[in-house]
Design brief:
Blueprint: H1 2-27, E1 42-45, H2 48-58, E2 63-66, H3 81-89, E3 92-95, H4 105-112, E4 121-124, H5 132-150, H6 155-178, E5 185-189, H7 193-198, E6 202-207, H8 215-228, E7 232-236, H9 242-251, E8 254-258, H10 271-330
Parallel strand pairs: 1-2, 1-3, 3-4, 5-6, 5-7, 7-8
Helix pairs in contact: 2-5, 3-4, 5-6, 6-10
Length: 331
């Protein structure tokens, strides 16, 4: 009797194994696998400037990956093996162009094309984006690339993005006018020059990356800045901030650090957000400069009253000595 029960149990066990295998085979039949024909095209961009634009005008229609992290300067980037895989899987590659710091890009393409079968469109879309007019053109260029290469119509979303840039431009002008940006003397890192000029600041000196600036250059910059009464030294995060910090300290100005790539801070994930973020940094810098001036004026007043008080004390002591001397003589 026991052996019959064991046989029955064995048969039941084998039945469930066969059923499970049959079910599994149904779930992995080749006809049910999601093929590459149904997947979204992969857009690879060199920077987060371009990836943020693709997200804005084609998010949901494509997958997008950037190569250089937003915290790094593209000119200092080192290619990684994972970048080669990105290039090989890309449907379209967007980069800024010859005048930009993408000298490593040709090396990356050569690494990805060692077998000689790399077939992907590479489009240069532009090197400027720090002003509303430049941002508008860059959005248009990216939309044209998506349309001409991949046949993706993003015209409706592009119109919304261009309208958002127009509204941001109006907001930036309002911030500038309401806070006396115009004609305020400043020193600026060259990669932020266009944006700072757009806001109306009076640029009295410009400096480049620290590795290209000599001590003689620094002396000249600081002389011009001091003579003009520069209130801010406007720096660029991605080029390093030590030089700007030194100049600001030497001339008694406020050091303000702007960003050049979306994604560095949570509140700046595309170009319009980045421009508004940078404008706020400049506004806060001017407020801090005014605060410093007020503190210095107060300190001077305190020093003045301190010396006046000391003078009164000395005068009182002298008068007391004179009175005591006069009284003693009369006695």
């Amino acid at each position: 009797m026991k052996w019959k029960n064991k046989v029955i149990m064995g048969l039941i066990f084998m039945y469930f194994i066969l059923l499970a295998n049959h079910s599994y085979s149904l779930t992995v039949m080749p006809s049910d696998i999601h093929t590459s024909d149904d997947s979204k095209p992969l857009i690879v961009t060199t920077t987060t400037v371009l990836s943020s634009i693709v997200e804005d005008i084609a998010g949901g229609l494509v997958d997008v990956q950037y190569i250089v992290p937003p915290s790094l300067c593209p000119g200092h980037y080192d290619v990684k093996p994972s970048d080669v895989d990105l290039i090989r899987n890309a449907s379209l590659i967007l980069k800024h162009g010859l005048l930009f710091g993408e000298r490593w890009f040709d090396e990356l393409i050569n690494m990805a094309n060692q077998s000689g079968d790399l077939d992907v469109d590479i489009v240069d879309v532009g090197t400027d984006w720090n002003t509303p007019s430049a941002a508008r053109q860059l959005y248009i260029n990216v939309a044209d690339a998506l349309s001409s290469v991949l046949g993706i119509d993003v015209s409706t979303r592009l119109d919304k993005c261009l309208q958002a840039i127009n509204e941001t431009e109006e907001r930036l002008i309002e911030i500038s006018q309401n806070n006396s940006f115009e004609d305020t003397p400043v020193v600026v890192m060259e990669w932020q020059k266009n944006f700072v000029e757009f806001l109306g600041f009076d640029i009295v000196a410009v400096f480049g990356p620290s590795e290209k600036v000599s001590e003689e250059d620094i002396v000249e910059i600081e002389e011009n800045a001091t003579e003009s009464g520069a209130k801010l030294v406007i720096d660029n995060l991605h080029s390093g901030v030590s030089l700007g910090e030194r100049i600001a300290e030497d001339i008694g100005a406020v050091h303000v650090v702007l960003i050049n790539f979306p994604g560095v801070v949570p509140e700046a994930n595309n170009l319009t957000q980045m421009m508004l973020h940078n404008a706020k940094q400049l506004l806060d810098g001017l407020k801090y400069y005014d605060y410093k001036v007020q503190i210095q004026q107060l300190e001077r007043k305190v020093d003045l009253w301190r010396w006046i008080s000391i003078a009164f004390v000395i005068l009182a002591i002298v008068e007391a000595i004179i009175i005591i001397t006069f009284i003693r003589r009369r006695e």
